[in-house]
Design goal:
- It contains 6 helices and 3 strands; from the N terminus they run ααβααββαα.
- The protein has 167 residues and is mainly α.
- The protein folds into 2 domains: 92 residues, Arc Repressor Mutant, subunit A, CATH 1.10.10.10; 67 residues.
- Strands 1-3-2 form a 3-stranded antiparallel sheet.
- β2 and β3 form a beta hairpin.
- α1 crosses α2, α2 packs across α4 and α5 runs antiparallel to α6.
Length: 167
């Protein structure tokens, strides 16, 4: 390998590492494990679909982490299996449409949280309604109403947010 080719390969490797770091930073903001960002970033930068073992080898992380990461990414639609036509190995490719990535995350992570929160909020309001009225109860009731408003607004905003991200 010539010095120029080695320099190009080194620069390319550095760019790839930094792009993967961007995905790692992104998943950390969402409270997801670092390995999910590494897996997605590696697939995103790969010119061809990669097999499970390719990801383990390239990332140097455990098979368990790759397995859990792929499962999470498939669940939100960020990664899909693709046919390879050669043997028993399953290959994976990234979803690169932002609208689909965000839509999957909203569908699989945000909406269940909103559903759960709405149910918990209703229970809290019932509990509060059964207490003797005082200033603190009025304050709590006001805050619960504020939360209820936030949940309702979130349900209205999420579809609009998805549409704005359409590519």
């Amino acid at each position: 390998m010539t010095d120029e080719a080695a320099s190009t390969a080194s620069a390319s490797g550095e760019i790839e590492r930094r792009v993967i770091d961007l995905f790692v930073d992104g998943v950390r903001v969402l409270g997801l494990p670092k390995s999910i960002g590494e897996i997605y970033g590696t697939l995103f930068l790969s010119e061809h679909p990669l097999a499970f073992d390719d990801l383990v080898d390239r990332l140097g992380i455990s098979k368990g982490s790759v397995s859990q990461g792929l499962r999470a990414l498939r669940q939100i639609g960020a990664v899909s299996e693709c046919p390879n036509g050669t043997g028993r190995r399953t290959y994976y490719q990234p979803e690169t449409q932002l609208k689909r990535l965000v839509g999957g995350f909203i569908r699989e992570q945000v909406v269940p949280h909103l559903d759960s929160g709405t149910g918990k909020l209703a229970t809290l309001k019932e509990t509060l309604g059964g207490l003797e009225s005082d200033e603190h109860q009025e304050f709590l009731n006001e805050r619960l109403e504020r939360l209820e408003h936030w949940f309702k607004r979130s349900r209205l905003i999420l579809p609009l947010f998805q549409r704005v991200l359409g590519e």
